[in-house]
Write a structure and sequence with these properties.
The structure holds 3 protein chains of 3 kinds.
Chain A (H helix, E strand, L loop, with lengths): L4 H13 L13 H9 L4 E7 L8 E7 L2 E7 L12 H4 L1 H5 L9 E3 L8 E3 L2 H17 L6 E5 L6 H12 L4 E3 L10 H7 L5 E3 L6 E5 L10 H14 L6 E5 L5 H5 L2 E3 L6 H14 L5 H7 E2 L4 E2 L5 E2 L2 H8 L2 H8 L3 H13 L3 E4 L10 H14 L9 E3 L15 H8 L21 H7 L7 E5 L3 H4 L3 H10 L2 E4 L13 E2 L10 E3 L8 E6 L12 H12 L1 H6 L5 H15 L3 E2 L3 H12 L10 H11 L1 E4 L7 H4 L7 E2 L3 H14 L2 H8 L25 E7 L12 H5 L12 E5 H6 L7 E5 L4 E9 L6 E5 L38 E7 L1
Parallel strand pairs in A: 6-7, 6-17, 9-10, 9-15, 10-11, 12-24, 17-18, 18-19, 25-29, 26-28
Antiparallel strand pairs in A: 1-2, 2-3, 4-5, 4-19, 8-16, 13-14, 20-21, 21-23, 22-23, 25-30, 26-29, 27-28, 27-30
Chain B lengths: L13 H8 L3 H27 L14 H12 L3 H10 L9 H22 L8 H4 L6 H21 L2 H11 L4 H11 L6 H34 L11 H27 L8 H32 L2 H11 L4 H19 L7 H28 L14 H24 L5 H22 L9 H7 L1
Helix pairs in contact in B: 2-16, 3-5, 3-11, 3-15, 4-5, 4-10, 5-7, 5-16, 7-10, 8-9, 10-11, 11-12, 11-15, 12-14, 12-15, 13-14, 13-15, 14-15
Chain C lengths: L3 E6 L8 H9 L6 H6 L8 E9 L2 E9 L8 H5 L5 E3 L5 E3 L9 H5 L5 E3 L8 H4 L14 E3 L4 H13 L12 H5 L5 E5 L6 H6 L4 E2 L11 E4 L9
Parallel strand pairs in C: 1-10
Antiparallel strand pairs in C: 1-8, 2-3, 4-5, 6-7, 9-10
Bound molecules: ligand MGD (2 copies), iron/sulfur cluster (5 copies) and molybdenum atom.
């Protein structure tokens, strides 16, 4: 059921007719859409879709001519990207038409990892899987099914989760660091919020980013780029500022108003140093701090036991000179930063970087978040907000038979949420070890969904060994990536341009949004939407499973699920800015136009325009933002205290827990933001600290796209391979010239890369962009440079459970 | 004046006929080798045709390299011939007589090769004729096209005219050889050396000499315009016209000298090409070397003094940077060597002059190269500046070009006397008297010298 | 008669390279593969030029997206021997692929290195050819190509207006790069209309042109980074 542009036009002629607010020339949002309207001809359709090249959740329009997708552009109506799109998104077409896609289900023919495959029918494939799962069910071993899922964002997330729930296994494990649709721990511990983090960046006066790559990565790249343009030159009022704290001179840093180079892992110290200045000079938001915070001043609890407050702690321990010597940031900069952060309010401190900065990262994040508390960046325009949730139809409950409950009650195989991992939702770093040790129980079946741990996780070797222990491994990838090579069965998924998609997108900016994507083209090969596959399997397994998946297929799933939107009587299907302005004007006046007379029409309009949203969502008053037991913003986190108590009991005693965590702090400090020293780095002629980072052009899925391979980055003209960035001075001393090949060697292994000698690199560091160096993944991706994960040695990461990827000491020698 | 034919003593000039009458095997073999190398070049071109210009080492931004360098270089050489012989003719320099033809042959032979190198450089050679279909006169490239064709025709005629009497001689000489006879008959235009013909011929030659000089000058001027008409650093220069012409004549003379020495050796032309000729040419070469240096110096000094940043990037890349080796070798070959050798009478021996000429040829090729590539390699905007390494295909085509040139030259000498017999004769008969006359005419009259011939002329 | 021009606000530009890829996708620009890329033969009608000054930690990097600037006094056009490149009445410097003889004189003449040469016949797996834009000609070996301001979009917009028997509005013609720019740093429009965005922005004190002193009169104007101005 496709709708040509013409048809589409008719659909909201009415509204357009009643346009009031004319759009100024500067309001470019709609031009794309307009032109695409004008572009339309009977042969041509523009199908809305959702980009899955990263987690940004941008809305797309796919230009389809005679069944061929010839162009992808941003959906001009989509609230996340408003017609904008990043290079990855544009290259989506190349993943659709990648000559090396898997074309049918494949069954392993030779040895594991040998690369011999036998094409089989979907019927046969489904049968195999169903039989396996039934087998486990009968043996009451449902919990030995493990699903590893990677970094993607749409309804398949809850769907997969539900699959494990209904089947009876706690082991839905995310191979990732970063979950836009989960609450940020620091915000949870200090604010008590349970909804994902949101920032009103568009209205911020100052955005202070601690290593969040605003212009290259982070939560929603295009949304951030849009924000950048908006606060700088578009919005009325004064030009917003962006300060970037990053050891690397990133693109974000070079475009920012100020770059603050910092010694890796010491962000907590810098944040608290700023806090010192702010408190010392008494320029913090007194009203907010007095009314709405807990644990700022010293305090005494119920039993009359007295506790140190945040203030005392800071004033005693984070004098700018100390901080400067820790972080390498000049004292005067600490002062100017602190003052700017207050004077340029509304100011936001961003500490929710994807990967952990350092072990026990929670304190770093709390330290950074405490700045938001000090400057009272809650509850007003341009400050923190919360993501209001999307009124989708609730899915039927998974009422569970005893065996399932038994399965779900088993401990997670990766140990997330227990003991020292009390705060972690997933613990990839433990997974391979535990599988090898069969701890707490052996794994029978493994599903790999949208993830390639053999490429993306440093523990590659352990993973390979662990996989040997697993009798049956299924990969859902459309591409033959490293991990799929070790699977027994590959059930190629559609690429995102071929399938129905629905996504309650999380994009950091508060308002609630639901995106809908239609299949832009017929499937190129005999692949199958993994959602359909799961539904099919559930149906065949029958019982509670079937009840939990009552839908015919993914389209039906979407239809049923979006009914809630229609009936919620809030929000509306996105439309031209004029129309929305008009509607908002009416709403202010207290009217709400019921835009459609029936769900069918609503659905048509939704699936034609690609998104529903409720702008109202973005406003957030303090009440909504602070949900702690104390009803206060807690510098001293009671929640953390309780959690650690619980964990302590699990492992047998607080001291034991602290030992496990390797925490030096004791007493109240454990629940306050603080910094504890990083192990001193050794220094030698050829020793560097390795840091990996993301490029705007690269993500876990884009290595196989030639356009991106050919224009990897704007700051170095490199293509088709990754490189290592070295400081000019030190390179000179090592006799390494720009473009030379060098060995990067750690205690774990060594890789060979092209050296780029840049004056922008800190002397003690080297940077390698992440995303290249595939050993598989098709002709475009294979053998392009080397994978930094081959040398990275992870420290324990009890917050994200992924592993600390920065900080590996490497020796660099001319190859 | 009487035709030279009756009294012509074949035996006396037999060495000039030898190459035609009884060609030496060695030379034929050598020509075979040259032809093979040329064929190799041809093969390289076929490859390039098949794979596209990508087969060369050219890239972004160094989009011109060997081919254009060779083009400019060969066209430069072509000035040897025609220009020199024309000037010498006009100047009535008697010592020119054994040299002119050798010079003219160089021109014609080399022009084809120069033109070919432009074709090598085209992305779409099969579209070359668009130049005539859609020619756009605003483009210097079209100026080149026209002036080169003009030059080619003019110098072909200029080569042919003085050739006619000699062809006639050969026609009679080879009366017994059927085909050869036929061949010469056609080209000798029924020349019988009658005074009328003689007169027309001389007039023709004189006219051509006058015509050829400006054309020749124009050719290399417009070639320099290819570069100077753009805005690129160290190209956009007003003296490029004369600079290129000077360089052209410079390399031309050098080429001429080398050819002379070679032919003198293999055809035993010692009686005709005497040290004195080389001495004179040597002096000419010296003059051009100084002139060339003067141009180069002022060109680079102006650039340096202006110190315009983009200009300087190119400047330094030549003087100290990537292209310094080429640049300084060029200066050494074009200036140091020739001046050191040629300034001293004692060293202006045939050997000395030869060495100087070879060095100049190498130097001038490098000069073309260092004018073209460094500028392209350093674009104005901060792009990753390019490095250019010619591929073996380009080398192949370059070798091919050179050997084909020599081949053509030898080929000519297999069918025509490489030294203008009749002009030598003429030199003997009228030249001597004329010169004597001329010299006398420079001097004050002395009584009694008023004789009949004088009278004729005055009335 | 319109005079088409572009404005790029460097204060908004994030060097994300979306414009660059959008152009490749829209105009069927081939990717050349590793080997050719290493030989410096990447074709990219729009490039992000970057320039870095200073030494750590006092460093500064500038990024400038550079399409063809469609100079009003284009050095590239003057030198073309066969009219394969010309400036059309609306100021678009156009290229006739089938006319070009591949002499690359125009490339040598363009001070902005905005022209690219097809060193080979670039082929891509034909499964990928499905993604080609049918509105745009696919260049063959041996010819020069460059940014066309997406003139095919102008033609289509105009045809459409004609079909609907009306004048074409300026905002119906939007180049592919402008269309996708995530931070809305690119503007496009009619320079002859004093009230068009591009004209207004063109008068901004932040406005400048690349290599202004060469007198090529580019129709792509840049706004330098820095404080907002009354105009906006
Ligand atoms: N283009 C693109 N966008 C993406 C993704 C992608 O693959 N590509 N992936 C998505 C995913 S999965 C994630 S997790 C996010 C990641 O989003 P980000 O975390 O924002 O991106 P990264 O590049 O991983 O890291 C950001 C910066 O942290 C810096 N850094 C390293 N150590 C330190 C430190 O100790 N202190 C400070 N202050 N900075 C440090 C690095 O130099 C780097 O520049 O991006 C998401 N968005
Ligand atoms: N050195 C270093 N390592 C890192 C990072 C780093 O910054 N530095 N970042 C880490 C972070 S933050 C993360 S989140 C992880 C992410 O690591 P992963 O989870 O492995 O990455 P993803 O991009 O989620 O998954 C990529 C895989 O998804 C599969 N895929 C692609 N398209 C589809 C599809 O349409 N359907 C299905 N079913 N599968 C598809 C492909 O096979 C591809 O191999 O990487 C981590 N690894
Ligand atoms: S930011 Fe992410 S989601 Fe948005 S277009 Fe780029 S790749 Fe797609
Ligand atoms: S798309 Fe826009 S922001 Fe991105 S590089 Fe191009 S001009 Fe700059
Ligand atoms: S930028 Fe270059 S190619 Fe474009 S018009 Fe100007 S000179 Fe010609
Ligand atoms: S390369 Fe083509 S367009 Fe450029 S000057 Fe030569 S013929 Fe004209
Ligand atoms: S205007 Fe069109 S052709 Fe020119 S750079 Fe932008 S997208 Fe490419
Ligand atoms: Mo991530």
């Amino acid at each position: 059921m496709r709708i040509s542009r013409r048809h589409f036009l008719k659909m909201f002629m009415g509204a357009v007719a009643g346009l009031s607010a004319g759009c100024t020339d500067f309001e470019k949002i709609s031009t794309g859409w307009r032109s695409s309207e004008k572009w339309g001809n009977p042969l041509e359709e523009w199908i809305p879709s959702i980009c899955q090249q990263c987690i940004g959740g941008c809305g797309l329009l796919v230009r389809v001519i005679e069944g061929r997708a010839v162009k992808v552009v941003g959906n001009p109506l989509h609230p996340v990207n408003r017609g904008g799109i990043c290079p990855k998104g544009l290259a989506g077409i190349q993943s659709l038409y990648d000559p090396d896609r898997i074309q049918t289900p494949l069954k392993r023919a030779g040895e594991r990892g040998e690369g011999k495959w036998q094409p089989i029918s979907w019927e046969e494939a489904t049968a195999i899987v169903v039989e396996r799962l039934r087998g486990l069910k009968e043996k009451r071993l449902t919990n030995s099914l493990v699903i590893i899922a990677g970094q993607f964002q749409d309804l398949r997330e809850p769907l997969l989760h539900r699959f494990t729930d209904a089947y009876g296994t706690p082991n839905y494990i995310r191979n990732r660091c970063f979950t836009p649709n989960e609450v940020s721990k620091a915000h949870f511990l200090m604010q008590g919020v349970t909804s994902p983090l949101g920032y009103d960046l568009m209205n911020a006066g100052l955005i202070l980013s601690f290593g969040c790559s605003l212009l290259e990565a982070w939560i929603s790249p295009v949304f951030q780029l849009r924000t950048f343009g908006h606060i700088r030159q578009e919005r009325p009022g004064n030009r917003g500022r962006i300060y970037v704290v990053d050891p690397r001179f990133s693109v974000s840093a070079s475009k920012a108003d100020q770059w603050i180079p910092i010694r890796p892992g010491t962000d907590a110290a810098l944040a608290l140093g700023m806090a010192y200045v702010i408190i010392q000079e008494g320029i913090y938001d007194r009203k907010f701090v007095e009314r709405n915070t807990f644990g700022f001043e010293d305090w005494t609890d119920g039993e009359g036991k007295s506790h140190v407050g945040f203030k005392t702690l800071i004033l005693n321990e984070y004098k700018p000179f100390t901080v400067s010597s820790i972080t390498g940031v000049p004292v005067e900069d600490i002062f100017s930063l602190a003052r700017a952060f207050v004077n340029r309010r509304p100011a936001i401190a961003l500490g929710e970087k994807g990967l952990s900065y350092r072990p026990n990262d929670i304190y770093t994040r709390m330290a950074i978040h405490s700045l938001n508390g000090l400057s009272g960046s809650l509850g007003s325009k341009g400050c923190l907000t919360v993501q209001s949730d999307v009124p989708l139809t609730a899915w039927p409950g998974t009422e569970q038979e005893e065996s399932v409950r038994f399965g779900n009650s088993q401990p997670r195989i990766d140990g997330a949420g227990q003991g020292k991992y009390v705060l972690a939702t997933d613990a990839m770093e433990n997974l391979p070890g535990n599988i090898l040790a069969g701890r707490p129980y052996p794994v029978e079946v493994l599903f790999l969904f949208h993830t390639d741990p053999l490429f993306s996780h440093p523990k590659r070797d352990t993973f390979i060994k662990a996989f040997e222990k697993i009798p049956f491994i299924v990969s859902f990838s459309p591409f033959l990536d490293e991990t799929s090579h070790h699977a027994d069965l590959i059930l190629p998924d559609h690429t995102f341009l071929e399938r129905w998609q629905g996504s309650p997108v999380r994009h950091s900016s508060g308002f609630s949004l639901f995106s809908l994507g239609r299949p832009a083209v017929e499937p190129v090969h005999s692949t199958r939407d993994s959602a359909d596959f799961l539904i099919e399997v559930a149906r065949r397994l029958g019982g509670g499973m079937a009840k939990a998946f009552p839908w015919k297929n993914s389209e039906d799933l979407l239809v049923q699920t979006t009914k809630g939107l229609y009936h919620s009587r809030e929000g509306y299907v996105v439309s031209l800015p004029e129309e929305e302005a008009f509607r908002q004007f009416l709403e202010k006046a207290g009217y709400r136009i019921q835009e459609t007379r029936s769900f069918e029409i609503f659905w048509d309009s939704l699936s034609a325009k690609g998104a529903w949203w409720s702008p109202a969502g973005s406003s957030a008053e303090v009440r909504k933002l602070i949900r702690t037991p104390s009803g206060k913003f807690e510098f001293y986190s009671n929640t953390l205290k309780n959690q650690m108590k619980r964990a302590a009991d699990e492992v047998g005693g607080m001291e034991r827990l602290l030992a496990d965590l390797g925490l030096r702090a004791r007493g109240d400090r454990l629940y306050l933001p603080h910094y504890d020293a990083v192990e001193a780095q050794q220094t030698a002629e050829s020793i560097f600290t390795l840091n990996t980072y993301r490029l705007m052009s690269m993500s876990g899925v884009t290595a196989a796209q030639p356009w991106l391979q050919e224009t990897l980055a704007p700051h170095v003209a490199e293509s088709w391979e990754n490189w290592v960035e070295i400081n000019s001075e030190r390179a000179r001393n090592l006799g390494i010239r720009d473009g030379d090949r060098v060995w990067i060697e750690s205690r774990k292994g060594k890789i060979r890369l092209k050296a780029r000698i840049l004056p922008t690199v800190a002397p003690s560091l080297v940077h390698i962009p992440f995303g290249q160096g595939h050993r598989a993944y098709g002709r475009w991706a294979r053998g392009r440079g080397s994978n930094p994960n081959d040398v990275i040695m992870t420290l324990e990461d009890t917050l994200k459970g992924f592993g600390i990827l920065s900080g590996t000491q490497v020796k660099i020698t001319k190859a | 004046m009487h035709s030279s034919r009756h009294r012509l003593n074949f035996e006396e000039h037999r060495i000039l006929f030898d190459p035609i009458q009884n060609p030496r095997r060695g030379i034929s073999i050598f020509m075979g080798i040259l032809l093979a190398i040329t064929a190799w070049g041809g093969f390289c071109y076929i490859l390039q045709w098949r794979y596209g210009l990508g087969a060369s080492g050219l890239n972004q931004p160094v989009l011109w390299g060997f081919y254009i360098t060779n083009f400019v270089f060969f066209i430069g050489i072509s000035h040897a011939g025609t220009l020199i012989s024309a000037i010498l003719r006009m100047a009535k320099a008697e010592w020119r007589r054994p040299i002119t033809r050798m010079a003219e042959v160089i021109t014609v032979a080399v022009l084809y090769i120069g033109a070919a190198n432009i074709i090598f450089d085209l992305g779409r050679p099969e579209r070359a004729f668009f130049l005539f279909l859609y020619g756009r006169y605003q483009s210097p490239l079209l100026w080149d096209a026209s002036s080169i064709t003009a030059y080619l025709t003019a110098s072909s005629v200029f080569l042919y005219l003085p050739l006619i009497p000699d062809i006639a001689i050969l026609r009679d000489r080879f009366a017994d050889r059927k085909w050869l006879h036929r061949f010469y008959q056609v080209f000798s235009f029924g020349w019988d050396g009658s005074p009328r013909q003689q007169k027309v011929l001389n007039i023709g030659i004189t006219i051509m000499s006058v015509v050829v000089i400006p054309i020749a000058v124009s050719v290399h001027t417009v070639i320099s315009y290819i570069f100077s008409m753009t805005l690129q650093p160290m190209w956009h220069s007003t003296i490029f016209g004369p600079y290129f012409v000077c360089g052209a004549i410079f390399s031309g003379i050098a080429a001429l000298i080398v050819m002379m020495v070679v032919l003198r050796k293999i055809y035993h032309l010692e009686p005709y090409l005497k040290p004195i000729h080389f001495n004179y040419l040597g002096i000419l070469l010296l003059v051009m070397s100084l002139l060339w240096f003067y141009f180069t110096f002022s060109e680079y000094l102006t650039g340096f003094f202006g110190h315009e940043p983009t200009e300087m990037r190119v400047f330094w890349s030549k003087v100290t940077g990537t292209y310094a080796p080429y640049f300084w070798t060029m200066v050494f070959f074009n200036f140091v060597v020739p001046v050191l050798i040629l300034s001293f009478r004692r060293m202006r021996t045939i050997g000395g002059v030869l060495v100087a000429s070879i060095s100049v040829l190498a130097g001038m090729w490098l000069e073309r190269f260092t004018i073209i590539v460094p500028t392209l390699a350093n674009p104005r905007l901060p792009f990753p500046s390019g490095i250019y390494f010619p591929t073996w295909i380009e080398w192949g085509l370059m070798l091919g070009s050179f050997s084909f040139f020599v081949f053509l030259y030898l080929l000519f000498s297999r069918f025509f006397p490489i030294i203008s017999i009749w002009e030598i004769e003429e030199g003997r008969e009228v030249g001597l008297e004329e010169v004597e006359e001329r010299i006398r005419s420079y001097l004050p009259e002395t009584a009694g010298t008023f004789n009949s011939r004088e009278k004729e002329r005055s009335t | 008669m319109a005079l088409w021009g572009m404005v790029i606000d460097l204060d908004k530009c994030t060097a994300c390279q979306a414009c660059l890829i959008a152009c490749k996708s829209e105009n069927n620009v081939p990717f050349v593969g590793k080997q050719q890329a290493d030989r410096g033969r990447i074709i990219s009608w729009l490039e992000i030029i970057s320039e870095t000054e200073g030494e750590y930690p006092e460093v500064r990097t500038r990024f400038i997206p550079r399409p063809c600037l469609h100079c009003d006094n284009p050095p590239c056009v003057k030198v073309c021997p066969v009219y394969a490149t010309y400036r059309n009445p609306e100021g678009i410097v156009a290229q006739i692929w089938e006319r070009c003889i591949g002499c690359r004189f125009c490339m040598a003449a363009c001070p902005y290195a905005a022209k690219y040469f097809n060193w080979h016949q670039y082929r891509i797996p034909e499964s990928m050819e499905k993604g080609f834009n049918p509105d745009v000609y696919v260049r063959r070996w041996g010819v020069v190509e460059k940014c066309t301001f997406c003139s095919h979009r102008l033609l289509r917009a105009r045809d459409r207006a004609a079909a609907e028997k009306r004048e074409m509005r300026a905002d119906e013609y939007v180049p592919a790069c402008v269309e996708v720019c995530p931070s809305k740093a690119m503007y496009f429009g009619d320079l002859n209309d004093p009230d068009s965005v591009v004209s207004v922005l063109g008068r901004s004190p932040r406005a400048f042109h690349l290599l202004e002193d060469l007198g090529t009169e580019p129709k792509v104007t840049y706004l330098m980074e820095g404080e907002r101005h009354a105009l906006l």
